[in-house]
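Reviewers of the previous submission asked for a worked example of the structure-prediction workflow described in the proposal, so we include one complete record here. The input consisted solely of the amino acid sequence. No template or homolog information was supplied to the procedure at any stage.
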Amino acid sequence: MPALPACIIEPIWDQFCALLPARTAVHPLGCHRPRIPDRVVFDKLVHVLVFGCAYQRIADDACSATTLRRRRDEWIAAGVMDALHTLALVGYDRMIGLELADIAVDGCITEAPCGGERAGRSPVDRGKQGRKRSVAVDANGIPLATVLAPANRPDSPLLGPTLDALPVHAPAMTVHLDRGYDSGVTRQRLADRGLDTEIAGQGDPVAVGQRWVVERTHAWTNAHKKLVWCTERRAVVIAFWLAFSAVVIIVGRLVREGWVRYRWDDRPTRKP
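From that input alone, the workflow returned the following structure tokens.
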């Protein structure tokens, strides 16, 4: 069973392949084992992201777990996934359009059983190790920026870094937040940035206002099981998986929205 539909993964791979740095070095004696093709490694990392399986579990005779880690680290050092996330946002904005007038920000706590960087005692899971991701999305739930922190970090202090990480801004933006951000410090931070704010009142359901889209985006991200129960210890590796997840979500929404607006040769017969 494919981890992702071909209409989503093929466009991602085409652009990802174009971003890979040129490799010209070969073994001087010509006796080194052939390099595992990048596409083989990429497909296995897609399975790791979606199903959350360990590298050892997905490895086989075609590609070892060590190769998966080494190639992943090569791509992290080259900044390929971050560049791909930026290009995905540019492509979505060009074809569908980002709605930046309304921005929603919220945090989500996930498990980090192996601890490591950006891990802390989870206040919602009996003090076990966990991480929090603070995500900013547009009015349609497209992930724009993500900040990683320990699970015991409050949401409010992460608001500033999350807004600073936004790659694009609109002349007039309204930030939609839940009651956990309701404080004078938060309102002052937003005022200093020239942003309007709408903070949910006590007892307001999630469906009220525009902040429900960020909850939906958290659900989309948690469908990628690698990020729900993440055993990675290094922050740069976790950031790689977060960017990978965001790219899959953006391209998936682009294909879904583009299905009713555009026609192309390999357009799916049914709406994704």
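The first strand starts at residue 102 and ends at 111. We consider this example representative of the routine output the project will generate in years two and three.
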